[in-house]
Amino acid sequence: MPPSEHSPNWDNLYLEKTTPWDKGAPAPPLLEWIGANPSQIGGHVLVPGCGLGHDVRALAALADVTSVVGLDLSPTAVALAAEFSKVGEESYLAEDLFALDDAHLGTYDWVWEHTCFCAIDPSMREDYVRAVHGALKPGGHLLGVFYLDPYDAEHQPGGGPPHGSTLEELSTRFEESGLFLIEHSAVPGKAYPGREGLERTVRMRRI
Fold it and tell me: Can you give the residue range of the structural domain that contains 201?
């Protein structure tokens, strides 16, 4: 995940094992979408903010996926992800989504979004849209589960991460930018406990 003056020190959190966002398994909405849409995800896949790589490995196990690159700012997270047994052609990089080198530009058929968009400061979201657009091939897809409402009695707007969003914001940032077309949007039927009905699975196509 990209750095910001408003962001935590992600590597320190992994070193301290203070990682409540890591559930030890792939995101339920990702597994649900894969089950409902067999053989749709293929080619080269990028996973920004991959953490320990649970989603990376779920994607790498798919027959039509050629390779998966898990990207994270934390070298510790990347090193820990690489300790898991390989299931396919997955790899991990400790790099900044906002500063990808040329080898990653226009390269990917799919980007899977799970924890990056909600973790960065909202002021960086336009940069996120441009970065993901730049990483995808023309016609490539962004598939994500967006955490619309992470707030509770202890965590209010402005106090993230995670930072919430709205369907209106997603439409504004992605579609009205002229960079993406939203092709499908639905409340996932499966979620981590406590997130039921608070997320949105969205598939977009890069224009």
Answer: 42-206
**Distance between CA atoms of 77 and 100, rounded to whole angstroms?**
18
Reduced to 3 states (helix: H, G, I; strand: E, B; else coil), residue 117 is coil
Indicate the SS3 state at residue 100.
Answer: coil
pLDDT per position as a tens digit, 132-153: 999 999 999 999 999 999 998 7
Domain holding 48: CATH number? 3.40.50.150
> E strands along the chain, which residues?
43-48, 65-72, 90-94, 108-113, 136-147, 180-186, 199-206
Asked whether residue 1 is domain-assigned, the answer is: no
Q: Is the pTM of this model over 0.90?
A: yes
Averaged confidence pLDDT in the chain: 95
Tokens 């080198």 belong to 101
pLDDT of residue 6: 56
Asked if residue 15 is part of any domain, the answer here is no
